[in-house]
Amino acid sequence: MSDALTPGAAARLLGVAPATLRSWDRRYGIGPRERSPGGHRRYGREDIARLRALCRLVGEGLPPAEAARQALDTRLGSVSEDGAADGDPASADPGLPVGRAGASLQGLARAAARMDADLVESLLEKSLSEAGVVTVWEELAQPLLYGMGRKWEATRTYVEVEHLLSWCVSSALRRVAAGRADEATRERPVLLACTPWEMHGLPVEALAAALREAGSPHRVLGPCTPVEATLRALRRLGPRALVLWSHAPTRADGAVLAAAARAAADAPVGTAVFTAGPGWREVGGAGRLAGGHLTSLRDAVAVLLSGR
């Protein structure tokens, strides 16, 4: 009984709404078989295993009634520590590259695998409001996107899930509420840009959301920013910092960085130039030319908010 989950915890783990659990219990009889001493519903390990099977079958397109029938007919063996029964197809679902991750990450992965965009965004927004941008990015969004990418590389499947998840993460990040602006930095924003051939701009959106959450002014030029556009924006805005993002080594251009560093040095007001992203690791002189390399979202926020 000590391992049993409340309806809310079970819903988070499975990546469904609590109302959906109640509906499945009422309509198909696939609900909790335990009660707390006070009579409240509690989901045991076998209950969770059956519901995982139901979620997988529904995600594969089976009508909920038939999926519930098959899940109830499934012969459950011993149950592992994370609540999955031996032989439960959901525990080895290639669309869930999260291993023994926490319930929030597992629930988000299952909702994404079913391509339930509304629920994915709802889960992300709830987590963002409770934990903040940096924590959600580093503990939920980034690990899941990375896992989906690795699955695609290995199996060439679930690319549609990765794209849907990226869109949902972007949508949730753009709805993060703005914090109160710091008077000391209100007039000089941080300028965020990708290198000219870099299309992978979601981490820049995460940094923008974290700065907005902290009330720090910023401007985002987005993916594939032409170098002249970056230089013109630098001259027009006089930002206190410029961050150049590159995800892939083939898209990190030392000439772009050198041009930005020269433009910043020639500006009438000081602008610190930073690199960010793994693409810069192989670019010689990047650390020397730039104000520094931002190694993570948490690091970037701390450095940029400190005024360095």
CATH architecture call of the largest domain: 3-Layer(aba) Sandwich
CATH topology of the largest domain: Rossmann fold
In terms of DSSP E residues, the strand content is: 5-15%
- How many domain modules? 3
Largest sheet geometry: 5 strands, parallel
Radius of gyration: 23 Å
CATH class of the largest domain: Alpha Beta
Number of helices: 13
**How many strand units?**
7
On the 0-100 scale, what is the average pLDDT? 83
Which strand order do you get reading across the main beta sheet?
A: 4-3-5-6-7
Q: Separation of termini?
A: 53 Å
The SSE string, one letter per element, is: HHEEHHHHHHEHEHEHEHEH
What share of the residues lie within helices? 40-55%
Keywords: DNA-binding
Organism: Nocardiopsis aegyptia
InterPro entries: Cbl-bd_cap, Cobalamin-bd_sf, DNA-bd_dom_put_sf, MerR-type_HTH_dom, MerR_fam, Meth_synthase_dom
Region (Disordered): 77-99
